[in-house]
TrEMBL record:
<dbReference type="InterPro" id="IPR005841">
    <property type="entry name" value="Alpha-D-phosphohexomutase_SF"/>
</dbReference>
<keyword id="KW-0597">Phosphoprotein</keyword>
<keyword id="KW-0460">Magnesium</keyword>
<dbReference type="GO" id="GO:0046872">
    <property type="term" value="F:metal ion binding"/>
</dbReference>
<feature type="domain" description="Alpha-D-phosphohexomutase alpha/beta/alpha">
    <location>
        <begin position="6"/>
        <end position="135"/>
    </location>
</feature>
<dbReference type="InterPro" id="IPR005845">
    <property type="entry name" value="A-D-PHexomutase_a/b/a-II"/>
</dbReference>
<dbReference type="Pfam" id="PF00408">
    <property type="entry name" value="PGM_PMM_IV"/>
</dbReference>
<keyword id="KW-0479">Metal-binding</keyword>
<dbReference type="Pfam" id="PF02878">
    <property type="entry name" value="PGM_PMM_I"/>
</dbReference>
<dbReference type="InterPro" id="IPR005846">
    <property type="entry name" value="A-D-PHexomutase_a/b/a-III"/>
</dbReference>
<dbReference type="Pfam" id="PF02879">
    <property type="entry name" value="PGM_PMM_II"/>
</dbReference>
<feature type="domain" description="Alpha-D-phosphohexomutase alpha/beta/alpha">
    <location>
        <begin position="265"/>
        <end position="372"/>
    </location>
</feature>
<dbReference type="InterPro" id="IPR036900">
    <property type="entry name" value="A-D-PHexomutase_C_sf"/>
</dbReference>
<keyword id="KW-0413">Isomerase</keyword>
<dbReference type="GO" id="GO:0005975">
    <property type="term" value="P:carbohydrate metabolic process"/>
</dbReference>
<dbReference type="InterPro" id="IPR016055">
    <property type="entry name" value="A-D-PHexomutase_a/b/a-I/II/III"/>
</dbReference>
<feature type="domain" description="Alpha-D-phosphohexomutase C-terminal">
    <location>
        <begin position="377"/>
        <end position="450"/>
    </location>
</feature>
Length: 455
């Protein structure tokens, strides 16, 4: 029986190919997905990794064997797969390992309308079926014989691009020079079509689809992976730069100086724009976004709702509250107009539109959204995650000026600073984020907490 404990994560399937999984297991996942979703038809897409086409086709065959009709949209970004799931009203599966190295691959699954499939919404059942079936070598047959489903192909890239451009109209904007670093990932496939016909002077970096990532990892969260983008923005005098991760569902922004724009500032900017369209709406933000996000939401007449980190929590809270937009510190941006799914491309179009609507540079535009100093995420390798977290809690729980909550990890808040300490779901890490009214306080609080964590 396959050991899926390291393969099936909280929100998706992800592991090394072929060491942890292969096309045989992919076919079982396809059959299990068909059974758990009880779908008559599904849609499947994949990224540019060498293993993606084979895994994707095996999954399709596994689902088709259960009588499910499969639409393959081929090479796509993850948000393009979500678009297909929403527009076609079908459950979907995306084959990607996002920003992980080349030897990894994975599956992000959703129900019809891009509704998330996570541990509590079907993934645990899918895992249990695959484990059971891997022991016997094949799925048990359905109670009644079924005719195999069909497998057909469909290109939805133009429809995806048109949907995004309808949500943010840039046709009349002032011309902008934009450097885009696709990191050899799926942004190189989607950006040319989305930007086609817009008043954008596009400067492409690493648009060649190459799942071995020959230039740098497709993980813009790591500062070393945006150095090329920063240099090209300065060198070309561009108005801004955009960096996408491997499956192009996350987008990072740098200003005209090549300086990174914090995702919290992008969240606040987009929230303000969405509230202008939907006055009084609800905005979701996770517990690690800046204080500036709920402040600006309130100033714009909206309601801010704080939730746990992770797309399944954000999407569930958006559905529960009817929220119009949600943002995370990791540069995931969620839109009601996009089936509550995350799309970095739509967030990027909002930034471009906001910039085009005024004459100043991006650094000036976003300065009002950058109100606090922040540490960024700091990872510490620890053997005893709960023990170290408890030690930090003990150090702060009796402070008169501190409020503690455990919505997601431990958050300690005072009038002048806050920090959050969370355990990684997949690695022996504790992740620390600190924000304060000035950089000196950030440094002091960071050092205090790390001294306990790393003791």
């Amino acid at each position: 029986m396959a050991d899926l404990s390291q393969l099936v994560k909280a929100y998706d399937v992800r592991g090394v190919v072929p060491d942890q999984w292969d096309e045989t297991l992919a076919a079982l996942f396809g059959a299990a997905f068909a059974q758990v979703t009880e779908a008559n038809a599904i849609v499947i897409g994949h990224d540019m990794r060498p293993s993606s086409p084979g895994l994707s086709r095996a999954f399709a065959k596994g689902a088709a064997a259960r009588g499910v009709d499969v639409t393959e949209i081929g090479l796509c970004s993850t948000d393009e797969l979500y678009f297909a799931s929403g527009a076609l009203d079908l459950p979907g599966a995306m084959f990607t390992a996002s920003h992980n190295p080349a030897q990894y691959n994975g599956i992000k699954m959703c129900r019809a309308g891009a509704a998330p499939v996570g541990q509590d919404t079907g993934l645990a059942e899918i895992r249990a079926l695959v484990e059971r079936w891997s022991e016997t070598g094949a799925p048990e047959g359905p109670e009644k014989p079924v005719a195999p489903g069909s497998i057909t192909q469909r290109d939805v890239l133009a429809d995806y691009a048109a949907h995004l451009r309808n949500l943010v109209n840039l046709t009349a904007s002032r011309p902008l020079k934009v450097v885009v670093d696709a990191g050899n990932g799926m942004g190189g496939h989607t950006v040319p079509t989305v930007f086609d016909g817009l008043p954008i002077d596009l400067v492409p970096l690493f648009f060649e689809l190459d799942g071995t990532f020959p230039n740098h990892e497709a993980n813009p969260l790591d500062p070393k992976n945006i150095v090329d983008l920063q240099q090209k923005v300065r060198e070309t005098g561009a108005d801004l730069g955009l960096a996408f991760d491997g499956d192009a569902d996350r987008c990072f922004v740098v200003d005209e100086r090549g300086e990174p724009i914090p995702p919290s500032a992008v969240t606040a900017l987009v929230a303000e724009r969405e509230l202008a369209k939907h006055p009084g709406g609800t905005i979701i933000h996770n517990c690690i976004t800046s204080w500036s996000v709920p402040e600006i939401v309130k100033e714009a007449g909206g309601t801010a709702v704080r939730t746990r980190v992770g797309h399944s929590f954000i999407k569930a809270e958006m559905a529960r509250t009817g929220a119009i937009f949600g943002g995370e510190h990791s540069a995931h941006y969620y839109f009601r107009d996009f089936w509550n799914a995350d799309t970095g491309m739509l967030a990027a179009l909002h930034v471009l539109a906001a910039l085009s609507e005024q004459d100043g540079p991006l650094s000036q535009l976003v300065s009002r959204y950058n109100r606090y100093a922040a540490s960024g995420e700091i990872n510490s390798i620890v053997d005893d995650q709960p023990g170290r977290a408890d030690a930090v809690k003990a150090a702060y729980e009796n402070r008169a000026d501190a409020q503690l909550d455990e919505l997601d990890g431990l958050t300690v808040t005072t009038p002048t600073w806050w920090f959050n300490l969370r355990a990684s779901n997949t690695e022996p890490l504790l992740r620390l984020n600190v924000e304060a009214r000035d950089a000196e306080t950030v440094d002091r609080v960071r050092d205090e907490v790390l001294a306990i964590v790393r003791a």
